[in-house]
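Continuing the series of single-chain predictions for the mutant panel. This is the parent chain; the variants come on the following pages.
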Amino acid sequence: MNEPQPTGAPPARPLPGFAEFVCLMAITIGLVALSIDNLLPAFGPIADDFGIEDGNRMQLLIYVFMIAFGLMQIVYGPLADSFGRRPTLIVGLGIYCVGTIMAIFADSYDHLLIARFVQGLGAAAPRVLTMAITRDCFEGREMARVMSFVMMVFIILPVFAPASGSLILALANWHMIFVSTLVLAIAIACWYMLRMPETLHPEYRHKLSVRRIARDIKTTVTNRQTLGYSTAMGMMFACLMAYIGSAQQIFETEVYGLGVWFPLAFGMIAACMSFSSFVNARLVRKLGMRKISHVALFVMALSSLINVVIAIAFDGQPPLPVFGIGLTVTLFCFSLTMPNFNSLAMEPVGAIAGTASSMIGVYSTIIGVVAGGIIGQQFNGTVTPLVGGYLSLALIGILIVGITERGRFMETTR
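Parent structure:
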């Protein structure tokens, strides 16, 4: 495998090897996934502690975190382009740790929501910096390949996250779930400071100025490819947000009543998504980002249509194996779109990777949280809102990609 080799002046110390680079990037961005997924089994105990009777209200623990996560990304990108990747990431991890400590000692549901908001403000840094660092070191199909490996490891974490949350609940209380993420954040900061050099190219370092930031934002949002694929990525991210918001109610409590087996079902689907990222990493250099992601988007729409028909036939509660297979196929396709859409969005804006990553992150995250939250809040004791939402998002995604590519799907020569 190729070692990460950024263009421009070499870093002050050598970059980690490929495997360590991928693992560090994956675990850094994986902190976001763990902050969401290992809390899902704790919804019941948290609701009991704070007297929350509406199950849909517990979804706010996800959406409040993600709103802050989305909004704060616009701050970290310009800072990273001006002061470097390393210090910006450490500051973000510090804010995340403050929010986590607040969550550990929260004495009301409102205080817990505030803590989750602060956590989200800090968690935005790992997302932005992971994308910017990867873009510093790779470009084009090679970046898509690296991002696929990162996503593969990143998605493996949610396979075990609900199970780890359930194990912690069996041994202690939900506060200890936040203790575990606090320890992980500190470990990531130490690993990063010890092993990862500054990757911001000297020729790309900018002075922090409103005019420069405005110029870079304009460059990002006026690039047809960047804007189009960022929008499409937002539609795909909404699929993930809708699923995470509804998963506990669908699998653990109201639809299928799996109880303690919920982490197993959640983990099996996440494992298939991780395998999808591995498939993408193996094929993307040969077939190209467009061909893989466009085919996956069409298959996603078809599988979602089939899932809607099945859901209607069973009054919104199809047999678990049938629903599980249909959902897995859809999310398998989702995992083939996200890293490629992200790489296609970042491809034209390498010279302003930090600010561009921020803008792409803010834009796609807000779209995903709002659209996914709307779908999640429609939960009515059936799977119909989820699968219907997936069909709508896939069709909108096809429309957006078609407009971006001027109707030319799956072309690999441009």
